[in-house]
C-alpha cells in the first residue's frame, strides 16, 4: 500500500470538483427525459501503443475512508477521480475529514476512529453502491445519524443485505419501501461485536461489517463462503488495524479487533483491472491490435477476467510483474486473437463480477458458444446486467439466450457484429462501455443512448479509445 508518514502541504480543490460532479449529474438526469442524443462508437482500426487506465475504484474508495479514520495526514497518488469516488470524498468531508487535492495527489487529514461528526445534510451517493454500503458500515459504530440519497439507478438497488448485519451490531435504519434509498440510519457507540456469516459472497457487505468493527469493542468476525476482493483486509493491515484471516474448509474467516487506532499512510493506487478489461477485450477482438495497458492491478481476487480471456485463447502477456502499494501489478500486452467459446466456471464469478458485461462482448465475437451460469448477482447491480446486455447485444446483431442466472452466447467467429442501436444503458456505466467496445468491432458501429454514465468510473474512457486507435 505504501509508506506511512505525514508532513505535506495541500491546496483546496474539492469544492470545484464536487461542483463538476453535480453538473454532470444534472446532465445525466436529462437522460430520464430522453433529451440527450445517442453516442455512436464506430468500427476501429488496430488498437496500438501504450495506455494507462485510471486508478482502481475499489482501492480509491477505501483509501479515502481509511485515511479519514486515521489520526494525521495521508497522501494518495493515482486516485480515481470519477463521480463515485468523489461522492465518497464529499461524504467524508461532511463528517469532519479534510480532503484536498495537491497537484496530482490527494491529501486526507483524518479525524480518527470514533471521530466522525454529524453531517449537516443528506449524503448524496450519486450512483455509487460502494460508497453507500461502506459508509453505512463506518457510521454504524459511531453515535451519529445520517441520511443517504442517490440517483434513480442507485435508489433501486437493495440495501437489505447490509442493513441486516449492521442492525445486529446495534445500528437502526429507516429505509424506503423495499429496503432502498433514500434511507436514514443511526449508529450506536459502542456497537455490538458480532460473528456474521455472509449468505451470499459480497465484498461490499464484508467490508461494511469490518468497517463497523473498527469502532466496536472486542472482535467482529465475518465468514465468507468464497473469497471476495480483499482490498479491505490488505489496506486495514497497512493502516495498522489488528486483523486476521483464517482459511478453513469451505469458508474464509476475517476477524478485526476494535476499537482500532489507524495511523496515516501514503497510498499508491494501481490501475483498475475492471477498467483495463474493456481495453483487453477490445484489443483481443479488433484485428491487428497490439496494445500495452500499463500498471494494472492483478489482485488474485480481481483477475478472473484475464484468466477467462486466456482460457478463450486471448493473447495476453503480463510484463514487469511487481508489487505496488501491497498489490500485485503488471503491464498487460494484448494482441488480437480469434477467441473460442467456453463454459465459464461459476466459481470464478466473484473475482470478475463487474467484468461479465464486457466478457459477453468477447463471447459475441468468439468462435462457438460461451455459457455463463451462477450470475444472479448481476441482476441487482446498477442495472439488471443480464437482461440489459442480452438486449443490447441482440440489437447489435449477436445471438444471445438469457436464463435466470446467465447468458448463452453464440459468437461470430471473429466476423464483426452488424452493429445498430441505440442500445439502452439504463444509466449503467459498464453497459455503456461494454457496448462501446462492441462498436469498435462492428460493421456499422453501435449507438448507445448516452455516454454520460461512463463518468462515474472512467472519465477519460473515450479519450483513451481515441489514443489507442490513432
UniProtKB/TrEMBL annotation:
It is an enzyme of class 2 (transferase). Phosphoenolpyruvate binds at residues 57, 129, 157, 204, 385, 430. Its EC number is 2.5.1.19. 3-phosphoshikimate binds at residues 57-58, 62, 202, 204, 354, 381. CDD domains: EPSP_synthase. Belongs to the EPSP synthase family. Catalyzes the transfer of the enolpyruvyl moiety of phosphoenolpyruvate (PEP) to the 5-hydroxyl of shikimate-3-phosphate (S3P) to produce enolpyruvyl shikimate-3-phosphate and inorganic phosphate. This is 3-phosphoshikimate 1-carboxyvinyltransferase. It comes from Qipengyuania citrea.
